[in-house]
Each structure stands twice: as C-alpha cells, then as structure tokens.
Amino acid sequence: MRNQRVLLLVEIAIFAALGYVLDLIGFGMPQGGSVTFVLVPVILIAFRRGVVAGLITGFLIGLLQVVTGRFYPAPLSFEIVVLQVAIDYFIAFMVAGFAGFFRPAFIRALENKDTKKMAIAVIAGTFIAAFLRYLAHVTSGFLFFSEFAGDQNPILYSIIYNSTYMIPVFLVAAFICTVLFVKAPRLLLPNKV
C-alpha cells in the first residue's frame, strides 16, 4: 500500500513537470494566455488516477509557473495580484483535473472495446478541463484586466479574448488525448503498465 502511494506521488510529480515543460511549447497572446499542450498531462493523470490526482497535478503546474516567474500579474496592488495569480494559475490549471470525472465512462467503453464511446469520454473530459480553465481566465480577465477592454464591456471582452486561445487549446488537447488514449489505453491503467 505504501509503495502505491509513493508511485502515485511520483506520477503526479512527473506529470506536473511534464505539464510545466509542455506549457513552454506554443505561442503566447499579447495580454496573457497561450496556446500550449499543458492540459494533456493533467487530463492524462486525471484519466489514469482520478480527479484528485488531476487536481493536485494542475495545482503543481500553476505553482511551478509562479515560483519560476512564468506568470503575468495584473498591474494592481499586491493583494489583488495575489488573488489574480491564484485564479489564473492555481485554480485555472487545478480545475482541469475534473476531466477525471469521465474516467469511469472511458473504462467501461474500454472494457466493451467501444472506441467511439472511448473517444467521446476523452473529448468530454477534455472539454470539461478546457471549459473550467476558460471560466477561471474569464473571471480573472474581467476582474483584474478590464483596462484592456477600453470602451468595450469588460465581461464580453474577457469572454472573447480568452476564447481566442482556449478554443485552440481545447482542440489540440482533445485531438492529442483522443489519439493517445484510444490507441494506447494501457497508459490509463496504472495496474497494467
């Protein structure tokens, strides 16, 4: 039992480090946000080990970004920046772990050898991960970056701006995860590897 916990912690650490590195690959937006592969390891661990492991992995990715200085703070007071960083980095990446809610559906489809339902479970999990992350960024956008909206409605501006990079993030992650999970489902079964 102790070895299983150690193995789980090692996997979480490896996937968090992989997520941090994959977040370096891609392109950034002028006012924050980027199209990267960071969701893939969070979704993978969430499907492999469950929601809690996904939440912890996402939180660690956000922590790694903050401690290494790879974050975009709002030009506001220190207290406000702490809240903004918490939403944009810790919460935004952590909630991607909720993709793990679709793990049981994926496992059932895998047992039935139904690749269509496997793909649907993966895409649904990826959508939840991307959508919840998107909501965190939209919330942060209209709360802390409304000066970028100019004369526009700050909520609408945040919704549109954050969708410009989160829609591609979702599409890329859904494609990679679907191909990876359907072609190599052993990756999601910790007892079989």
Sum this structure up briefly.
The protein is mainly α. It is 70% helix and 3% strand.
Layout of secondary structure:
Blueprint: H1 2-22, E1 26-28, E2 34-36, H2 39-49, H3 51-67, H4 78-94, H5 103-111, H6 115-144, H7 154-183
Antiparallel strand pairs: 1-2
Explain what you see.
- It is a single chain.
- With 193 residues, the chain is mostly helical.
- It has a single domain (4-188), classed as Arp2/3 complex 21 kDa subunit ARPC3 (Orthogonal Bundle), CATH 1.10.1760.
- The chain has helices at residues 2-22, 39-49, 51-67, 78-94, 103-111, 115-144, 154-183; strands at 26-28, 34-36.
- Strands 1-2 form a two-stranded antiparallel sheet.
- A hairpin with a 5-residue loop joins strand 1 and strand 2.
- The longest helix is centred in the C-terminal third of the chain and has 30 residues, at 115-144.
- It is globular and about 55 Å long.
- The mean pLDDT is 89.
